[in-house]
Amino acid sequence: MTRKHLLSSADLSRDEVDSILDTAASMHDVQRREVKKLPTLRGRTVINLFFEDSTRTRSSFEIAGKWMSADTINITGKGSSTSKGESLRDTVMTICAMSVDALVIRHSASGACHQVAQWVDASVINAGDGTHEHPTQALLDAYTLRQRLGSLEGRHIVIVGDLAHSRVFRSNVITLGRLGARVTVVAPPTLMPSGIGDWAARDGFATSWDLDQTLYAASPADRPDAVMMLRVQRERMSGGFFPTEREYTAGYGLTRERLARLYAATPDLPILHPGPMNRGLEISAEAADATSSAILDQVSAGVAVRMAVLYHLLAGETEAAA
Amino acid sequence: MTDLLLKGANLLGDNEADVLVREGVIAEIGSIRAAAELDGRRLTVVDAAGLVLLPGLVDLHAHLREPGREDAETVASGSAAAAAGGFTAILAMANTSPVTDTAEAAERVFDLGRAAGLVDVQPIGAVSKGLAGVELAELGLMARSRARVRVFSDDGKCVHDARLMRRALDYVKAFGGTISQHAQDPRLADGSACCHEGEVSGRLGLPAWPAIAEDVVVARDVQLARHTGSRVHVAHVSTAASVEIIRWAKAQGIAVTAEVTPHHLALGTDLLTGYDPVFKVNPPLRPDEDRAAILAALVDGVVDAVATDHAPHARHDKEHAFPDAAFGMLGLETALAVVAEVAVRTRLLSWADVADRMSFAPARIAGLADQGRPIAVGEPANLVLVDPDASWTVDRSASQSLSRNNPWHGRTLPAPVVATFLRGECTAYRGRVRGQFDPEEIA
After folding, report:
1. What's phi and psi for B15, nearest 5 deg?
2. Residue B383 contacts by C-beta under 8 Å, 6 or more apart in sequence?
3. FRET label pair with B196: which of A183, B204, B275, B423, CA 20 to 30 Å apart?
């Protein structure tokens, strides 16, 4: 695989996704060693350039880089660009003038990573751009699901939440689709992205406004094999997207009652959430902490998947993985 | 001033004749003998065989950025771009810094235009003080000023308050004014909207305006125009539904006019997938159905005019993430060629129709007496020669504009402007303006 950037999940073919997930599995083994260090990226410099707050993604990339022996530097530039009057191009060109090999970028604006990739020589990895995509999140979700379910071919994954503003959803429908999963996305109409009807028809996923109908389908074949809950920002209420928290929870939350009914049919149903969670809003404490919850597995997989991505973009396939 | 003889020009694309210009006025049309002198006066003879002669183009909508952002454009550089594009008159939008909301500000822009002397620069006045959308600007004083402002617009912002729009429409009747509305209800999208709302924006995760944000304001404004008995002009109409509302309103006898931009006719939402901010514009690029509808409306006359919405920006204001970058694209130098590409080459419009949509109609809407006149004896010689059979490749670095946000860069377009004449004087020749070419070259 000779890929320079990872900007969108759509960049990756089925083979590439498989290859990254396989590499991630061997990286995951490294995590369990006492000495968690590979020499693979020794002498390479990876900059984590985070224009937007992030704890888990940034630390996950940082640990991934360090365990690969890359020199990893974090730059948090919250609002540094436009608020100081500096253009995004000037900001990234300044950093790249210090000879970096990869830029891991988180930005509040959709498309920021695509633009940066046009300007710089370094590899660009999208660590979340606005409400567009978050490709490594989708990879770690796929990795986690594969660990739980085996092959995702024909498996039914239900994604619930604020789809309109979710980069996790946008990357997941692509990556899970690549792996042959059936995806249904659920949200109230106001939290569906515009044009999703045509989009879903073209890309072969299903949409629903009714969570219960989706979770408790009459036909066992249509019941979910995994449920992924997305974060709903409380400030969406002021935008008129939904009236109150309790109304959202009643319609779209993974409540204790919904969990019990799901467990009656599928006791080991994997429950995913990209975090950070709003306990009591989109996910109940019972669901977050359920025995089948995969939420901490996702975090653990995050490091392995990001090691695999760094490996694929920076080291190439000529060197052994581990 | 020497006299000018255009030999063998194709007038409006449908009859070939020689045109003699004296003292800035068309003196004779017919078969005229070419000579170095005529009646003892020096004569510049231009071989116009194979070229189409149109009335000088008039742009209802250009952003010249002066005062305030002279790094992006000045009245002089914008005038140069206009002349190179075949224009002899342009209306300068009010959203400068400071805003053109007083007589003094309007006269300043007017005077800068006259000093540059490449096109007639006619300032547009703001509807509201500081474009704030709260109180009326000094519309009457701007109208009475030396600049004789007749078109008022808060363009860049919508006059969204219905009461203010009603008062503005009512007030400008006293001096024959027109309100040019940037139709876009700001409440139907959040403040960060940066493209058309639809499948593409959904996939790209970009905050967007729905088409109805335009439609509902157009619908309201034609009713306000009817109620007040005043004239409303819809700037850069971009949706199929808005066009249908305007069609209906015209059928009711409501005094509404409308313009479309070349970029809304030719560029679609598919261009956004690379997040290149050169395609970020307000109103946003629309899907093919809307493009087809506004083109059809331009052809059948429901849309009266083509206007550029020329919007220069300094490079660093476009080198941000797409949602953070500035809105707008260049248009003065490419407008005629784009119209030729989408409407003339496709035989939807004749050159005579182009003269109507890009000169007669906009001059009429703007109330410019000496512009947009027929090519006839006694009329001011505001003219443009176009090569209908040639093509050219757009090079943003060759622009007269100070900015480079040119969405047409690298494209091959038809119908380059050969020469532009303002009151008989050649202001631009093959992309260069007066001072950049040798007057002997045109002969």
Report:
1. -150, 140
2. B6, B19, B21, B53, B54, B55, B56, B88, B375, B420, B421
3. A183
Residue numbers of the domain that contains A19: 9-134+301-315
**CB nearest B323 (choices: A109, A164, A193):** A109
Structure tokens at A72: 């990893």
Question: What's the confidence (pLDDT) of residue B38?
Answer: 74
Q: Identify whether the C-beta of residue B72 lies closer than 8 Å to the C-beta of residue B247.
A: no
The CATH number of the domain holding residue B9 is 2.30.40.10
Q: Please count the CA atoms within 13 angstroms of the CA of B274 that sit on its side-chain side.
A: 8
ipTM: 0.91
In angstroms, rounded to a whole number, what is the distance separating the alpha carbons of residues B348 and A282?
55
Contact across the interface for A194 and B323, Cβ inside 8 Å = no
In a domain, A322, yes or no: no
A140 & A121 share domain:
no
Residue B248 and residue B182 share a domain:
yes
Any domain includes A161: yes
Domain containing residue B234: CATH number: 3.20.20.140
Residue A263 lies in a domain: yes
- Tens digits of pLDDT across chain B (443 residues): 689 999 999 999 999 999 999 999 999 999 998 777 777 788 999 999 999 999 999 999 999 999 999 999 999 999 999 999 999 999 999 999 999 999 999 999 999 999 999 999 999 999 999 999 999 999 999 999 999 999 999 999 999 999 999 999 999 999 999 999 999 999 998 788 999 999 999 999 999 999 999 999 999 999 999 999 999 999 999 999 999 999 999 999 999 999 999 999 999 999 999 999 999 999 999 999 999 999 999 999 999 999 999 999 999 999 999 999 999 999 999 999 999 999 999 999 999 999 999 999 999 999 999 999 999 999 999 999 999 999 999 999 999 999 999 999 999 999 999 999 999 999 999 999 999 999 889 98
Of B65, B53, B60, nearest in space to B21 by CA: B53
Q: Does residue A240 form part of some domain?
A: yes
> Which of A81, A129, A195 is nearest residue B198 as measured by Cβ atoms?
A195
Q: Nearest CA of chain A to the CA of B98: how many Å?
A: 20
Closest to B199 (Cβ–Cβ): which among A132, A170, A198? Answer: A198
Residues of A in contact with B206 (CB under 8 A): 110-111, 130-132
Domain co-membership, A291 together with A184: yes
Count of structural domains within chain A: 2
Q: Does B276 participate in catalysis according to the annotation?
A: no
The predicted model gives A30-49 an average pLDDT of 91
Catalytic-role residue among B309, B317, B353, B356: B309
Statement: residue A1 has pLDDT above 90: no
With respect to residue B372, please indicate whether it lies within any of the assigned structural domains: no
Domain count, chain B: 2
pTM: predicted TM-score of the whole model, two decimal places: 0.94
Q: Do A111 and B322 touch (CB under 8 A)?
A: yes
Same domain, A119 and A152: no
Consult the annotation and say whether B12 binds a ligand.
no
Is the pLDDT at A83 greater than 60, yes or no? no
Tell me whether residues B324 and A114 touch, CB distance under 8 A: no
Do residue B22 and residue B116 come from a single domain?
A: no
Same domain, B249 and B307: yes
Report whether B171 contacts B229 (CB < 8 A).
Answer: no
Q: H/E/C letters for each residue in B178-232?
A: EEEECCCCHHHCCCCCCEECCHHHHHHCCCEECCHHHHHHHHHHHHHHHHHCCCE
Domain with residue A189: its CATH number is: 3.40.50.1370
* Domain contains B371: no
Q: Which domain holds residue B253?
A: 56-366
Q: Which two tokens stand for residue B205?
A: 């995760």
Using the 8-state DSSP alphabet, how is residue A281 labeled? T
| Residues B9 and B150 both lie in one domain | no
